[in-house]
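Ops channel
N.P.: pipeline sanity check, posting one input/output pair.
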């Protein structure tokens, strides 16, 4: 029972930290262009053509 008194606050803190990280990433535009990176992988780099 004593371990629950320690694990519960740790789990709540980690969950809240993850939620804050997600909200921060939303506000900073991390999820604005989801398809752009996928298409950039397929494009040729002009520097490689030499």
């Amino acid at each position: 029972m004593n371990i629950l008194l320690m694990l519960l606050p740790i789990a709540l803190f980690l969950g809240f930290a993850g939620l804050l990280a997600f909200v921060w990433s939303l506000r900073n535009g991390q999820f604005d262009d989801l398809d752009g990176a996928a298409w950039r992988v397929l494009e040729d780099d002009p520097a490689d053509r030499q």
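N.P.: looks fine end to end. Residues 1-27 form one domain.
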